[in-house]
Amino acid sequence: MFKRTKVTDGTATGQGPDAENWDGKEVGFRKKSKVPGVMITQYIEKLPEGKSHPDFTRKPIALTIQEGKFAFFKAIVTGDPKPTVVWSRNNGDVSDPARYQSKYDPNSNEHTFEMPHVKPDQADTYKCFAKNEYGQAMVTVVLNVIEVGFKMTKAPQQQAEVANCNFKKVLKRRSKVVPKAEEPEKKEGEIDPKFWELLMSADKKDYERICAEFGVTDFRWMLKKLNEMKREREEEQAEFVKNLSDLKPIHINADGTASFELEFDLLDPSSSIYLYKDGEMIPYTKELGDKMKHCLRKVGRKYIFSMRDLMPEDAGFYQLDVEDVNMFSTDFKMVDFLVKIQEVKAMEREDAVFECVISAPLSKLMWFGKNMPLEQGDKYDIEVSEDKLIHRLVVKDCMVVDKGIYAACAGIKSCNAWLVVEADKGAPKGKKTARKTTRAGGSGTDLQKVAQEQQQILDKEREERKEKIKAAREAAAEAAAAEEPEKTADSGAGKDKGAAVKVERIDKTSVAATTTVAGDSGSGHSAGKASGGAKQDGSHADAGGGHSAGKASGGARKDGSIADAGGGHSAGKASGGAKQDGSHADAGGGHSAGKASGGAKQDGSPADAGGGHSAGKASGGAKQDGSHADAGGGHSAGKASGGAKQDGSHADAGGGHSAGKASGGAKQDGSHADAGGGHSAGKASGGAKQDGSHADAGGGHSAGKASGGAKQDGSHADAGGGHSAGKASGGAKQDGSHADAGGGHSAGKASGGAKQDGSHADAGGGHSAEEASGGSRQDGSLADAGGHSAGKASGGAKQDGSLADAGGEPGITSGLSDIHAIRGQPAELTVKMNTDCDGAWFKDGEPLKSGGGISITKDANIHKLTIHSCRDTDSGLLRFVSGDLSTEGRITVGDVPEFDEDDLHKFSKPVIVRVGQNAAFKMPFQPQESLTVSWFKDGTELKDGGGVKIVREPNHSRLLLRDCLRSDSGEIKIQLKNPFGAVEATSQLIVLDRPGPPEGPVETVETTSSVIEIKWNPPKDDGGSAVTNYIIERQERGHSLWTKLGDVSAEKTSFRDRNVTHGKKYSYRIYAENPQGLSDSLETADSIMAGIMILSGPPGKPKVVSTSKTCINLTWTPPEDDKGVPIIGYQVEKRKKDTNQWLALNAINEPIEDVNYAVKDVTEGAEYEFRVSAINESGAGDASPPSAMACAKNPNMRPCFKDPEDFLVVRAGNSVRVKISYEAEPPPHITWLKDDEPIAPWINVINTEGMSQLVIPSSKRSDSAIYTIKAKNSVGEAFFDVEVRVTDEPKCPGPVELEQTVYGKVAVSWVPSPDQELDDRLYYVVSQHDSNTRMWKTVADRLFANTYTAHNILPGIEYHFRVYAKNDMGLSDPSQSPTWGANSNRVPISSNGVSSMEISFERPPSILVPLKVHTPPKGYQLYMTCAVRGCPTPNVSWYLNNTCINSDKNYYITNSCGVCSMYILRVRENDGGEYRVVAVNSLGKAECSTKLTVRD
């Protein structure tokens, strides 16, 4: 049922801006809001500067929600001063804080109006008022509530409305198509109401199809009745809409959604629109289309209903109603493919055909080509058979650009296949070939046969419906004919059969006809009252076994008793009727939400009420002897007690599950029946037996008190052995003693009973969280308290009357602790003292007393506080005080976590991904404190890390499984757990993968000279999706190339190869294919021969006689076994190195008659191998083993060197690499010499094909020499010399002296550089500088002497000279000459005693530019630099991870004018770490550091 908002214009009392909250100002100025639907009233004409009236920046959104969910509205309000926000409703009060809560979040500025556990009576139009001193803003919002299930309180109200003939309210929001759960049993041949609903919304061209579908053949009668119904419907529709047109039935869109459309104008814009599926209302949204499955959008006059995430269960009958009148009906069917389209291979300019067969007639399929919809036209022909089962797509005049994937879609079902277009190789270039008249493709199966079989099935179903309709009409005609005589019969004859029962069915459109039934009414489904009719003996028929939302009771039997009402499911009251002896029938065995009680039997006793499930009270009735029937064995949330038996005793109440009180009844001797063995949340006690004793209460599980009853001698029965959360005590035995209470586990009190001598029984051996004390023995002492107890173990009175030692002053032996209680459930707190003393209870400092849902009790030294039904207000700190002693504990009231039903339904849908993709699960939930969220897969908890990502947000949790494998498929479960309990939700993960290989072995079904047929089995694992086809490939023996032969459908697991050669052997491999790809192959174990053929054996292995760059000569030996058939000749094949293809050098019909052959089809420098086959009249036999690789080149060649370098300069310390390439055949012997002497052992020589390399790892100056390479083979030898000079930057020359020997000339001389003797290629460079040009210029170069004469030296000009030493590595530092010229002989001027101030440039080191962070890839080079300043020049050291690397040869470190650099040629993994530069001089120290991370 669905509760819709009542829209009224008035405002009820207590709503809106009343006098208390508002000024009542109605005079103002209307203002327009930027948000549609907001009404603004401004109180003054002009607002002060900076002030504003209230307005909504976000208004509440209309909500349609299911009963019991959490409903809320949100609004954001602006205005200066800050407005006050008040909520109200049109038809009710919002002052109840338990149902309505207004909240404000200052961070988000959101005003929230919450309704937890929303109920149908809260459906209304709500108003939100925002007001400040300058005006007010008001907005309305509608809340619709969908009712769930049947409400007992609604039934009387609806019955009263029916009695008052107020059918309109009863019939509201009920579809003419009754839901399946409420659908009455159809009469034979009765027409489905969907038939008329579909006809009224369908086009006339569809009438014939709909009639055929529902088996209606009388078209004249149909049209007549349809016109009458249409006139009535149009009159009803005219009350709410006008201009109803453009009705489009439901269809599947390209984006995967389904939708239907219609256009109309609402006479009243506030009229409500409802949607139904199969007669059941479905919720939808207008603004949150991406949040809910169903959506209804309005575009102009057009209303579009759509639904997403289509599933097979979405098929059904959909209706759209305005208020109580149907506007449109459409049927959404799911069609499946019986034959799917297959891959088509077509030649260019040929037509391609795709064919399929569907399970139900459909006038049109949706065809797609390369993700684009296709329509009938010049390029495509879309054909449909007469029965509308076979559909074809013809792609005309195929071109290469037409290749791709083509698909056929029927609802949510689809199939696709490839179109492969092969170019016409025989067509002339540049010219367009003529269009071919042939067609390629087709499904390869007899489509007409499949369609005929399906049509026969559909015709058979249609004929069955026609026969039913015909039979029903004939039966109705016969009944009408027989009705006339029956009317004249005696009307009183039926009165003796008992009172008849009227069965009423109320529908959305009409009230069902009243039917008088004079027989059984059981096993039927009714929304009203279902009772048994009167039988022949006057009794009522059985009403049991049926499902009823009303009252199900048994009828009166022959003897006047009421028939059984047991065994049925009822939401009302199920009671047994009176039997022949006046007793009531059994009401047990049924499920009832009301009261289930036994009726009185023959002796007047009520019948058994046991064995049934009841939420009310289940009690046994009185038996013949006046006793009550058994109430045991049933599940009850009320009170289950045994009835009195013949002797007056009560029947057993044991063995049943009850949330109330389960007690044994009194037996014949007055004793009560056993209450033991049952599970009860109340009190389970044994009844009194014949001797007056109580029955055993032991062995049962109880949350209340379990005590033994008194036995024959007056003693109580054993209460031991049971588990109880209450008090378990032994009963008194025959001698007056109490029975043993030991051996049981109890959270209450376990004490021994008194034995025969008056002593108490042993309480030892039991485990108790309370007090375990021994009973008194024969001598009056108490029994041993040798059990395990968390409370106090005290001794009893000994024989002499003394008490056992209890020692100590008053104290608390068991105090309070923090507990969590479930809202609405009872809770109990217990404090145990070691002595009997008084105490007081406090909550949050306030004293507590019994009353108001709280009970405070004291039993000796045990103090209890019981909360009967916990509420939020019960949360707090509880404290118990006794004298100076106290204990405290906190009670927290809350609920077990729960999921939203819509979210749970959405989560339960399986998640389907492909292998390698990510699978994501999301589950929303209500935010709670102390909530633990856990994810499980197949029962194993998932942890965050690796391929699992778990995200926990306040209101939801997400699970992400990365790179899913096929083995990841399974059950995914989320668990929400808090201190109050846990809740779980499950879903399924399906990982799609390519299938496993087909199952072998491959069987040979047939082999002939022209055909080989093979067979295999389907794969064990289809990868999560069905196998679509198998692909077969073939390899001829002796060849390495696999050729695709074709494919077969998934239903066929065999293949016939017709293109075989007699006597040849073939290997086959089979692949399984599904939408995810190809499987691994299944290959035949051995080659399969086509027929029987006698072929020659293989010849001997070919030998290479000689080679050249143009020819390779071969020879071989004949086969050892020619199989008795003469050899005609031989076939020679060649294979180039690094290829897999063998090429025949001669055809089989052109055999080589000799056993040698010259292969001239070779490429110079290429390598080949050869094999030979012997040819007889049956063909070529097996090939010989391949020959050795032979290279097509000249055999002999004197060594020669290719473009060598004869001089090489290397810096000292670097490696020397001398590479020499050569050509020689055969390969030569390589020898290296140093200055005509053998090289040292530390010099490495690396010889490879065509190249030799000399390597000196770390060179020194002494390695400078002439190195000679010598290559020698059988043809000759060759030599080559390479001069290697190892040097370094030269040191600067010594002091420079100037001397003038001749006017105008100055002789410049200098001390030679220390390297002059070591380096014969060292020379000097002289630069000159004069005071006129003030520039340095080179005046002499390549000087091998130590003197130079400068010319044109003029007087009056200052000259300076610099001398450099230079070699192959570069220049040395210069040596500076003294000044020569005008001021060289000038006398210094005295300062006359005036001292000048000295300036010091000394400073400690400092870092000008620090090191930067570097993350180079492994193997790359790296530069790391920084700038350092200081005077005197600081000494700079480099450290890696606190280890100095200045002397490490893996790092090239320089310091140029304060710029410190470090270079790594190839970065290694161990180069990563912290690098530090430390600069130190006499004045201080400075350092900087960075990190180096090496990437893979």
Walk me through this protein's architecture.
The protein has 1496 residues and is mainly beta. It is built from seven helices and 115 strands. The strands form 23 sheets. It has a 13-stranded parallel sheet, with no helix packed on it. A twelve-stranded parallel sheet has the order 33-35-37-39-41-43-45-47-49-51-53-55, with no helix packed on it. A hairpin with a 3-residue loop joins strand 70 (948-952) and strand 71. The two termini are 65 Å apart.
In short:
Mean pLDDT is 74; it is low at 1-26, 150-173 and 487-807.
Backbone CA Rg: 53 Å
> Quick check: average pLDDT?
74
Unreliable spans: 1-26, 150-173, 487-807
Main sheet makeup: 13 strands, parallel
Largest sheet, spatial ordering of strands: 32-34-36-38-40-42-44-46-48-50-52-54-56
Fraction of residues in H or I helices: under 10%
Helix run count = 7
Q: How far apart are the termini?
A: 65 Å
* Overall morphology: extended
Extended strand count? 115
What is the strand content? 35-45%
Structural class: mainly beta
